[in-house]
Amino acid sequence: MKAVTSKLITSKADGVGHIILNQPEKRNAIAYEMWQGIAVTADDYASDDSIRVVVISGAGDKAFSAGADISQFAEKRSDKAATDDYNATVRKALEAVDRLGKPTIAMIQGFCVGGGMSLATHFDMRIASDDSRFGIPAAKLGLAYRWEDVRALVQLIGPTFTREILYTGRLFDATEAQQMGLVNRVMPQSELQAFVSDYAARIAANAPLTVRSVKETVNQVLKDPAARDIAQVERLIAACFASEDYQEGRQAFMEKRKPEFRGR
Q: Is residue 87's pLDDT more than 70?
């Protein structure tokens, strides 16, 4: 896949699709073209059967992302039409991540703020270094936070912590973030990359159809009851039991060997 922008590095290896936010001189602030690239890359990884897990991270060791690239706002959000286009581009990227039917992991070190934190919350798991800092300073900038982003936060950490984050606009350290449920794991910075690589490999080695069914089931649980597609969940569950992978899993268990799943 050809890169959309040099500010976004993508690669595929051993069943893992990587996305690296690449503006370290700006603490990986997310530029307009990076949002475009995230949407294109997420769709590409979704359609590539060789990709079983997607990991996003920031270049360097100072930040996952310090938020949107505000230097572009004079051009990209100069009037209502431009702002609407910018917001639609961000929304398209986040929606592409949301519909990526494979496990996603945000590997976070340093600053994870504003739009960077919003992006991270749309990934299934967040594994952070112990020097990470989290926050959404919208109240300090006079910005309103979108319905979709507030809902994602409430679903993740509940209304009380969502209010605290948005009311105060302050930075929270990694320990506080884990206590809130904002991150799954906190690791020493020196161990973060190896831990995430191991976790991604563990997930990639599991049965893809099973993992997909789990992801879809959780997504349906989070929807309003009237919007849930339980029939889709049942179809995915049935597909697991009818799959070659189910036969392989049982056979490997009996033979005391590691299964080789093919996603079919």
A: yes
Q: Which residues contact 82 (CB under 8 A, 6 or more apart)?
A: 75, 76
Residue 239 corresponds to which tokens in the numbers above? 């597909």
What gap in Å lies between CA 99 and CA 94, rounded to an integer?
Answer: 9
Q: Got the DSSP string for 115-178?
A: HHHHHHHTSSEEEEETT-EEE--HHHHTPPPPHHHHHHHHHHHHHHHHHHHHHH---EEHHHHH
CB atoms within 10 A of CB 185: 15
Which of the four CATH numbers 3.40.50.1820, 3.20.20.70, 2.60.40.1080, 3.90.226.10 does domain 8-204 have? 3.90.226.10
Pairing of strands 125-129, 133-135: unpaired
CA atoms of 97 and 102, how far apart (whole Å): 10
Name the residue ranges covered by the structural domains of the chain: 8-204, 207-255
CB contact at 8 A, 55 and 16: yes
Cross-strand pairs, 17: 12, 54
User: Which pLDDT value is given to residue 3?
Assistant: 60
| The 63-65 sheet, strands edge to edge | 63-65, 111-113, 133-135, 172-173
Tell me the helix, strand and coil percentages in the chain, rounded to 5.
55, 15, 30
SS3 9: strand
Q: How confident is the model at residue 200 (pLDDT cuts 50, 70, 90)?
A: very high
